[in-house]
């Protein structure tokens, strides 16, 4: 099974990046796309995010072998219902949503006849919309594929080969496990960034001007994350509620221990933790997952 025509629904950061990457790296695969927002469709056509920006969803998906839903996770079920009447038999339907259990359930419920294989490229930026996408986004990044138990192996292999074709590394994972792992590595870090930036802007005796003026290193990094798309992140927290609450419970317990160490002047506890966390940063850099890789100037995007 090979992909000749891919349709992308939702032409923002991720959909646009897939469209550009396919045109760049898989030039024999035809790309169509559609977005619910007419301004996004116009801009997507101007930037050439896909070969053909269609005026209807039916036209975009009708001939596709693979449809990828690139909309906020809260809109996945609606998008799946909208494409359902227009698919050819055997079309593989996938998505890029940041939470997987609830999205998988929504797609399967809306598309009982289609071959549903959920996926999540673990790559992105704080930007969104049709101007944010770029072809190299997925290069050397993981794409986690979370097929249901009865998913046909040929379709899983085809989808995996597609992601590898646009530069990603593929890992197959159970959807529930994905949701816990990503709660730790992505969702809670975003929640922390949103919180600290909100807290800083609410402090009565620190003016907003001072927050902006003195935000060097640490706080500045948090503000990048806290500038991420509000619709996307609202939906992530609402759809990955159980895993996020579980990890958040652990996090607040650990934070309380640090609070107590600071109050008690317990430097050893602080030092031991900071020493341990340093090694995690070093492992990430050794794996090549840091921002400073020469082939990927993501800070420029
Ligand atoms: N931004 C990231 O870093 C990142 C990384 C990996 C995965 N994701 C996931 O990718 C998905 C898209 O995120 P994004 O960052 O590209 O968002 P985005 O806001 O840049 O793009 C989403 C697009 O979907 C369109 N849309 C919304 N509802 C629609 C519908 N029902 N039908 C058709 N179009 C619709 C919007 O008009 C918008 O253009 C989300 O599910 C998100 O969880 C995001
Ligand atoms: O680098 C960033 O700005 C991101 O937020 C990317 C990031 C992440 O947390 O790693 C965000 C959400 C995704 O689902 C995948 C990737």
UniProtKB/TrEMBL annotation:
The record ties this protein, via InterPro entries, to: 6-PGluconate_DH-like_C_sf, NAD(P)-bd_dom_sf, PDH_C, PDH_N, Preph/Arog_dehydrog, Prephen_DH
According to the record, the segments passing through the membrane are none
Keyword presence, Oxidoreductase: yes
Its keywords, alphabetically, are:
Oxidoreductase
Would you indicate the residue range of the signal peptide?
none
Q: Where is the Prephenate/arogenate dehydrogenase domain?
A: 4-292
What's one Pfam family here? PDH_C
Q: Does the keyword Cell membrane apply?
A: no
Q: What protein name is recorded for this chain? A: Prephenate/arogenate dehydrogenase family protein
- Species per Swiss-Prot/TrEMBL record: Qipengyuania mesophila
